[in-house]
Amino acid sequence: MPGRVVRLLGPSSGAVRQSLVALGLNSSTSLVAGAVLGSITPTLERYPGLLVMVPAAIGLRGNVFSALGNRLSTAVHTGLFRFSLRPGTLLGQNVTAALVLTVAMSFLVAAAAKVVAVGLHVEGTISLFQLALVSIVGGMLASAAVLAATLALAAGSVRYGWDLDNVTAPLVSTMGDVLTLPALWLVTFVLTVPIFPSAFGLLTGIAAVAALVKGWRSRREILRQVVRESTPILFVAVFLSTLAGVVIERRLDVFSRYPALLVLLPAFISSAGALGGILSSRLSTKLHLGLLEARAVPSREARLDGASVFLLGAPVFLFNAVGAHFTARLLHEASPGLLQVVAASMLGGAVAVAFVVAVAYYGTVASFRLGLDPDNYGVPVVTSSVDFLGAVALIVTIVALGIT
Questions:
Q1: Total structural domains in the chain?
Q2: Has this prediction a pTM greater than 0.85?
Q3: 299 is in which domain, residue-wise?
Q4: Higher pLDDT, 176 or 217
């Protein structure tokens, strides 16, 4: 790689390699998630409202645990990190906050999906408590593994010198993509049992609200701060991601006709969010360390970080397109053709990344200037926004290219 490109990509070639490896793994596993999504289309059609919930359910894992990784990264950089899960420690309180937010926001995902689906006339939507059961139980199953991976990354960063800012967002997004869909799908099997889904969904909903109230009023300062600062932005994130689900469900006919595009979808959205997460993490750490000024006009260093995201994105979106086409062919599913899939991914990706760079910078800077912790705001703002606008960008590109 030419020296000029390496300089643009970041402080060292090692950081570039870490980012590319993490993004490559993110794309590869997101294609697996896309294949899963394509294969469970009959389930999505059988239970209207589930597809509306899918982007928010997937995004929630990335929002909660990427933010956790960002906070741990800042602790590592500032020398405050200690690997202890005792309730009163920095790590213990952060983990507890992540679990509280996961269960509480999973219930909100279900409620948002129901409200938006009914409001936009998605016919035959299943009940709120059925959605809640799938969202909360499926979400917690996936979150257990994602939490373990996040803690392993934090431990590895201390032992092996990894920079969490370069790897957390892509790898956590990867885990969220791969595990959330199968977990949600597994829970749908209990929806055929009479009475049980609604009753158990009601109980899990009550437990979710109780967990949020307890976390909000906790006497532990870090736990209370994280829950109070994260809840409002995650609330907005859930609704934006739910709108993405509506956009996708309204175009389900195109994705059903060409499942290769459905295979592409999770990788496309996840890559855009991961790129924004990398940028947001870098900016947040530099703000905490005093290496970057929170200015309305980005400094040269901030512009270079933004340029690095564009350069990283080009091979990633090309890989996503080629992978989606051949994964679909391997599964004997229809594709509009390799060139058209590549064009949709590259053009839509350019639009999505331009938006992501702007949101990552101004979202991180604004939260810092308001006296809030950008580790709690940067990634959720980016990923929730890209869930919606990324889906719109891809669908508009598909329509513009005449793939219908």
A1: 1
A2: no
A3: 3-400
A4: 217
